[in-house]
Amino acid sequence: MATEMRTGLARIAAAALLCLAQQAFAILPIEQWQSPSGAKVLFVANRDLPMLDVSVDFPAGSAYDTREKSGAAAMTRGLLRLGADGLAEDEIARRFADVGAVLGGRFDPDRAGLHLRTLSDPQRRGTAIDLLSRILRAPEFPAEVLEREKVRQIGALKEADLKPDTQVARLFYQMVFREHPYALRSSGDVATVGRLTRGDLQAFYRRHYVADRAVVAIMGDVSRQEAEAIAEQLTAGLPRGDGQATPLPQVESLSQSVTRVVAHPATQSHILIGAPGIRRDDPDYFTLFVGNYILGGGGFVSRITEEVRQKRGLAYSAYSYFSPQQATGPFIIGMQTRRDQAEEALSVLRATLREYLEKGPTGEELRAAKQNIIGGFPMRIDSNRKIHDYLGLIGFYGLPLGYLEDFVGNIDKVTVDGIRSAFARHVDPDRMVTVVVGADSDRTVMSPAAR
Q1: Is the pTM of this model over 0.85?
Q2: Which of 228, 235, 253, 390 has the most CB atoms around it within 10 Å of its CB?
Q3: Is the pLDDT of residue 12 over 70?
């Protein structure tokens, strides 16, 4: 009777959280259109605060680099704001500061762009939007600034290359993605950054920062008519493309398991295990999101943390996550542990993963995960900035406009059998890469995938 009562109360609590989370988003409909310049625009009006968030993103992330010139994408995005349309970087910074506006940016393997936060009164907003439009349409990539930034970047790369966390991540991505551009280092390498020229950045800009591939996200205190004018002002002067962007190549599955151990004097062994996971538009996304929360994404309530930390004290933190991207992004399990117990920790991680793949979560684990995720959903959309970030995500990856409105319902629909089936489709423990940095000597172990 007590068990039935607890189950009933849990269901009532979940239903209440579902209702509250849905209500939290009901007042924020997303509008979408295509600007005359060809850009995709997503807009949410919110008159509660005199603020405006605007971003313009492009398919211009590090995956659009070449091996010979890796780092060009990051350097192009970085120099956009360091000289444009006759304005030096100090003048650009001063003018934004004068109107209380903040210019930031976004850069990852898939996308690159700029984000502006400004007060919404017409005068301040107008000055900030005009500055952003000048930066986007007429970057100058000054030669002296490029040389300075190359020196700075090369210094940072050399310093990072000595650290075990950098080494483990670099080697992991190289082994998982091999010839795919996702294997490239987003910031470039010392040699490739050193070779970059102003002409390389100009060519990358003309090829990838084009109006008909831009995604504009606008959130805040403006009308639909004002939002339309802002989107067109920001994109009308951009280069025009010659059709759709070249799609990223398909990510190939791994054919076997490979373990690479790298010598390093660090007292901790840095460990990553993983393989290609899912695309951003994969229909299994929500099922895997919930399933991974139980496996390693839920912090102290996850299986991996329970087995590695709570029961055995082998690591302070251990985790897992899917990183869905335009092409298939990685599934990653990671931790740090004392180098003398790395083998034991690896054995526990692998055994935990295999058991989870074979049996899936328990019903109680699933109920608890749903309650935690649904209960935390209002925190995902409790500010203009957070909603604005989702607008950019939805627009860039072509997700449904009801993505946020349906988020809680999609979580609530996940089942134990669904998790087991989805993980079986996307995670094969016999085809995974393992990288350990922090050992006495180097070694590589390759094992054919089980048939």
Answers
A1: yes
A2: 235
A3: no
